[in-house]
Amino acid sequence: MTADVSRQFGSSASDSGATRAFPPGRGTARSTTVGAGQTGAPAGAGVPTSAAQAPVARRAPELPPVHRALICVALPGLVISSDQGQLTSQGLEGFYRGGRRLLSRCQIRVAGREPVAVQARMIAADRARFVATVRTAPDAGPDPDVAVERIRHADGTERITLHSSAPRPLRLPLEVALGTDFAELGAVAAGSSGRELAAMVHDSGMRWSSPTGHAVVTATPPPTDALASAGLLRWEFELPPGGTRTVELRVRGEGAGISRAVTNSTVRPLAPAQAQGDDPRVGPLLKTCIDDLQALSVRDAAHPQDVYPVAGAPWRCGLAPAEALAAARMALPLGTRLAAGTLRALARTQRTGPGPEHGRLPGPLRHAGAHLPPSCTGIEATLLFPTVLAEARRWGLAEQEVRELLPTAERCLQWLRSATREGPYLPDPGPGGPLRCETQAHAHRAALLGADLLDAYDRPGGAELRQWADDMRLRFREDFWCDDRGGGRPAAARTPDGRPVPHLGSGAVHLLDTGLLGAGTCAPGLLDKVQIEQLARLLGGPALDSGWGLRSLGVKEAAYNPFGHRTGAVRVHETAVAVAGLAVAGYEKEAASLLRGVLAAAETFGHRLPEMYAGEQRVEGGAPLPHPAACRPAAVAAAAGVHLLATLAGIRPDVPARTVRLAPVRSAPLGEIGLTGLRVAGQTFSVRVSRLGLAMVEEAADVLQLGV
Hints:
With 708 residues, the protein is an alpha+beta fold. It is built from 12 helices and 35 strands. It starts with 69 loop residues before the first strand and ends with a strand.
């Protein structure tokens, strides 16, 4: 996973756009550029350096843990809280906007006492509710008589409500202590946030000033008293028996990159689909996934009509090309607007100058685990671009938008053919990097779906792409298959000198992700029937299936670590790809096991799936262990939840041909399930799958016919 802490909220996609705030293993070790003649090493790698010149090794800063934090997101607004409800300036706590912490401290006292926290929970992607109690009469027994409710919103508001249960009128002072350091999120994550700024009484609240901007808190109703030296606002309330009083705080920022930030509060690129069925978890899961994707969707600052998903909160609130495209692709059942905005935003970053990089999309390096060097997310994004465009067209992307984006897809495909002139395989990173299994799968799928797209618009190059894909497929089945006494396995990669890297990991699932062609058919894959059967057995075996989802590395492999994000942790995105691929290939037992595992894990996480969690084996009565540094919410994880449920219905649209085909999972692993409010051809699409695995369309656009 690449890091993006220091380029918050709308960073441009570039090969060096991943300034580190992560320890080794989370992303690239340093900012790197992948281009012609480079193999992915950091700048200056391989240059002899004398001992006197050698830089002093610095320990990467430790990321604050966020697995227990309540993270409210409505980008560019973000609020991070502990389960105690009080904001104490500890760790990442605070209100952020545009990557800047506007308020780091918001502590309340009622009747001179700090309330006792009793509950904290998310009530929506952008809101959290905290409940605490106060006992105002010590001689009245152990029962509290005042409840304190706090509703905290990512848009910069907090509503504090006092509820009295006392049998007599109460006179209660409410004190709110406020403070801020106006620090950037990257600095906070690195532990160098700075001192708290001096406050000034301003209007009905407080104001803090710094060389880079201002933060203002206003209160409704206005406080009875304000003390700037302590950042303290104070009210005196009379509460009758059963009475309530409410104070609303509103936080706003002024300054570079804050007041100009475009809110996503009105961004609704996804259909408000719903799920219901025999399994009560499907409804909350789909709702939460859609809410999280909406919350992580932002407008392009220069082109506000384009909406794309950022990678995840709190670390990666900028555009990550490969992950944005992967999320938009899995969210196609909710409409094509997110895909269109993502494609347009990335099309503007494509390299169009002369040279070997012509047509490639930029993207930073991504750590690939202990067995392989970092991979290039720019290569993955370049291969995903024509795939997403071709599939979005099948789901109903408008012809005008397809034609507008087609030249960018053509250049991506031209780059692919140029990068494979000297052989059938694509190095990653190029030109001297290893030949990764998943990169060849991405390239093969891009070639077939891209050829289909080019032919549909009478553009040249389709036949050449198909021929290259056919040739690569024949050689891949031999070159990338490692025989052993257990039936063999696909190699994770081949080194530049031709040696296979045989470790068993989740990257192989992309061999089952073949993509959607015309008439609702799937493109041919790189493996033959026998190899697919063996891969399905491996994916469903105990080495990879943790009971909570698919491990990123088999338990018996060297360097296995259940918390390693590429060496053993469960990555929700890859698990969803595995479930869909296994279902299409007919291995429903293995698909159902992985599906049930993720669904059980989602329930323990309040249906908000993190990007990853530990790959410890599931035991009865247990729960998946959270990864302390995982983004939650994360775009690919939220979109993966949508993909998992849509897989059960097997929707195969071909809007240009005005047909839609259904290929449901016949074993109905979750019993009956209904999906309503999806989008096909820009109109509502609803489908139901019975307990017998039979699918029926309940609502669809009039122009669509049910294909066979």
